[in-house]
Here is the input.
Amino acid sequence: MLPWRHGSAPAGVSAATDDTVTALVHHRSMRIIVQFALGALAAAAITALAGCAYTQATPPVDAATAITIRLPLTQAFGPDYPAVAPDGRPVRIDRAELSHDQRTLTVQFVGGEGYLASDACSSDYVPWLAARADELDVAVVAVRHEQQATLPPNTSCRLVGFSHTFHLALPNPFAGTRVNDVTGGIFFVFGPQDLATIVDLPDGWSQVRTFQQEPGPPPIWVQVFAIGDVAKDAPDEGPGHVVLFQAFGESAEWTDTRAEKARERGATSSPVTVNGEERPLWSDAASGELLLAWKLAERSLGLVGNSADMTADELVDVAQSVAVPVR
Here is the structure.
């Protein structure tokens, strides 16, 4: 039984008690799973669902496993969740966003095809979350059901990934900034409060974008600086841009992976000093890319500029000005 999965019915329509069908409808820009009795609804009632108000109802005990219609890839849950995460295999969350009213957390992940009891290759997932201080702990768990079909001997499932979206209603508005995936990822839904940034930019430069690149571990935050306005679809790097990458922990992304790619393209390195430590600065004559990596306050930093905008020494000056705010 999965009591926190939405099984709501519109006012005037009874909840399912026999054959259950799961229908996906739109209500205030949020998809909500509505379970209703197949024999109790007429076609006219279905088309009227979009305008109805919903109240949470507890689905039948076997609603999650006895359905004859495949569960959709977009579902809604909450606002009540069990005290501990359900048994099963946690899956990695790829994205987490908080609604403007801070009452809904939307998570996305890649998994199997939507659950159908008769399909041995389908997958059912249930979410869990708990608030502590100014953080949210979140899990999406793959669960198995005794009623689910099994594969015949000497057969296997297709290795196909499906994108799932779960809208998680929160018990209370979330005023924090950090969401912790139990698999190890970290999401900053409002940006880290102690984000290091460039203090001394050349005249005319300003921050035009800031976003999280990876949940990690460690999580990586990106700040893009440019001269003047930048088109929404413009690349983050290249002439006219300076990009500061910040990993909240140890990362070899810029000292190993990115540096090796630069070397393979023909870039050369020269020693420079950042915060009293000697570091290699990579310069790519073909593209103009300048790459510098160093550490600050137990974080790994990467700075990417371009020789069309500044010299290597000027990029070092920018790196030297990067600082963590004092609180």
Notes: The longest helix spans residues 253-264. Residues 9-188 form one domain. The chain has a mean pLDDT of 81.
